[in-house]
TrEMBL record:
Superkingdom of the source species: Bacteria
Domain annotation Anti-sigma-28 factor FlgM C-terminal: ranges: 31-89
Lineage: Bacteria, Pseudomonadati, Spirochaetota, Spirochaetia, Brevinematales
Name of the protein: Flagellar biosynthesis anti-sigma factor FlgM
A Pfam family assignment: FlgM
Key words of the record: Cell projection, Cilium, Flagellum
SUPFAM superfamilies found in the cross-reference section: Anti-sigma factor FlgM (SSF101498)
Stretches for region Disordered: 1-34
Organism: Thermospira aquatica
Residues that span the membrane, as ranges: none
Length: 94
């Protein structure tokens, strides 16, 4: 038996018709992407985490405001004492 290569008349053209790639205008170009609710929540959490990470740990303006109110005695009222006591009890589950 002797193998002489590709048939010069038929060649490989018969096989190439089977694997023909459709022209660009014949292809379906409508793609869809669905994002799960879990993925949306994770993306939102990542955004929030990024904002928190970029925020300063201590709000100096707020600290200065509270210090000034303490020095002026603005927190020395029964209403403030009751509110603080209530929040402590709530935090402790009482």
């Amino acid at each position: 038996m002797e193998i002489r290569g590709v048939d010069p008349i038929r060649g490989i053209t018969q096989d190439s018709k089977i694997n023909k790639i459709p022209r660009r205008d014949e292809r379906d170009t409508s793609d869809e992407v669905e994002i799960s609710e879990e993925a949306r929540q994770l993306a939102e959490a990542a955004k929030i985490e990024d904002v928190v990470r970029q925020s300063p740990d201590i709000r100096e303006d707020r600290v200065a405001e509270v210090k000034a109110k303490l020095e002026r005695g603005e927190y020395n009222t029964q209403e403030v004492f009751d509110q603080v006591a209530e929040r402590i009890m709530k935090a402790l589950g009482l």
